[in-house]
Amino acid sequence: MAEERPSRGAEAAASARPSAFITAPPRRVLFLCVHNSARSQMAEGFARVMAPPGTEIWSAGSEPRGVNPYAIAVMAEVGIDIRGQRSRRLDEVPWREADTVVTLCGEADAACPTVTGDVRRVHWPLPDPAAAPDPLPAFRQARDEIRWRVASLWPRGGEQAPGTA
């Protein structure tokens, strides 16, 4: 009797490793970008709503400039208030305690801040919505992409994440 062999597609699927976040969700996460004004602020806002209790969440930038009003507005559209957040420099947050650092820079790699140490690093190459000619739609698009990506850090069994209605 001939042995059945899985197709190449099935082999690839079987050998694919699950995301590290499925097996070890972040407990202390830092969202990092250049200005800490839009992308990382939106990610922090979503994470504060979606992460399990006890998760520590920070955002920071190498050149903080204040929270962008468009970021505040588009997050309010989905029911998340980030008006109390503020832009911080990397040295203002306990980044050495993070188990996961997520960079959200779409610019050249040289512009995106980095951290050293034994930490899981994730890069989400998202363009800066503040640089778009028509910022409001760009901020909405960035928000929706960030919401999906943040939700993937802490998957919930069939539950709808806040801000996803």
Describe the structure.
With 165 residues, the protein is an alpha/beta fold. It has a single domain, classed as 3-Layer(aba) Sandwich (Rossmann fold). The chain is 32% helix and 12% strand. The protein contains 5 helices and 4 strands, in the order ααβαβαββα. It has helices at 8-15, 20-23, 39-50, 69-77, 135-153; strands at residues 28-33, 56-61, 100-103, 120-123. Strands 2-1-3-4 form a 4-stranded parallel beta sheet, covered by helices on one side. β1 (28-33), α3 (39-50) and β2 (56-61) form a beta-alpha-beta unit. α4 packs across α5. It is globular, with a radius of gyration of 18 Å. Mean pLDDT is 82; it is low at 1-20 and 157-162.
Fraction of residues in β-strands: 5-15%
* Biggest β-sheet description: 4 strands, parallel
CATH uppermost class: Alpha Beta
The CATH architecture assignment turns out to be 3-Layer(aba) Sandwich
Radius of gyration: 18 Å
Average residue-wise pLDDT: 82
The CATH topology assignment is Rossmann fold
The secondary-structure element order is: HHEHEHEEH
- Biggest sheet: strands side by side, in what order? 2-1-3-4
Oligomeric grouping of the chains: single chain
Cα end-to-end separation: 53 Å
CATH superfamily: Response regulator
| Total number of strands | 4
Total domain units? 1
Secondary structure category: alpha/beta
Helix fraction, binned, reads 25-40%
Number of H/I helices: 5
- Low-confidence segments, given as residue ranges, are 1-20, 157-162
Shape: globular
